[in-house]
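job 3f2a | input accepted
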Amino acid sequence: MARPCKRVIATVIVLTFIASALSLPAQTLLLTDSAYSSVLQRMKTFGVMLPQGYDTARRYPVLYLLHGWGGGYQDWSSKTRLQDYISWYDIIVVMPDGENSWYVNSAVNPLGRYEDYVATELPALVASRYAADTSKQAIAGLSMGGYGAVLLGMKYSARYGVIGSFSGALTMPRDLRVREGWNRAAKGNNGDFALPSLQEAFGKENSPAREKESVFTALHTVSAFDSARKQHLPYVYLATGIQDPLSHIVPGNREFRDSLYAAKVRYEYHETPGKHSWGYWNDALRAFLPRMMELTGWK
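job 3f2a | predicted structure (299 res):
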């Protein structure tokens, strides 16, 4: 019996591989993009996740995901199953690099305009490069990013349909010094390991920026809206792990929940088992995404 030639075998293997690849479902596409920021006056890199079957003839809703203190734009895509979870939905996910800025315009550094970058400049850039529907946006984040999502979501309430905060550090601008829980999480650093970023973001203890950049101040501003306008405010989704070792996280989230209730702003609040960890944030993200889609009615 004649043996098949190696070329025929190789051709069969290649054709089989191609047929198998064509039978696989389309996948989301993770990109790393960058552009010069005029407000920060330097190049900035950010992550973008495009939905499966991405079509430039369409326009897609956009979710902005903000990282926490000490993190970066790659955190959400590398430390959670975001790419798996998002494959169910036709949305674009944008992951900015907020450094340790607390997502505010710095009280002391004229070039630290991260509020302007994340809330205004970056969305305009995304709309110019991708098939983004700027009328359909949501913003969410963890820890420092949870604070940033709530603050920016309230300040620019007309731009977002939903705000999501997971373990949000919602009361940090009040205090100059780092609270006890942060010390335990420092893992060998001194007790003021986050202090430089707090001082750059909010200034000294008597700085007016500490009140100006409070999520409670932002909520008070929008809560003055009449009932008709309140119906168009972003829906606020708060989630926190009940075993969070940072002592201010759970009390701060409860306080903000009570403030939302008093202001008659639409919200939901979740306390579930979990710590200040990626295991908890992965689970929180998985629960949040379908709820966000349900609330917004995005297809």
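job 3f2a | Confidence is low (pLDDT under 50) at residues 1-25, 178-184, 186-191.
job 3f2a | closed
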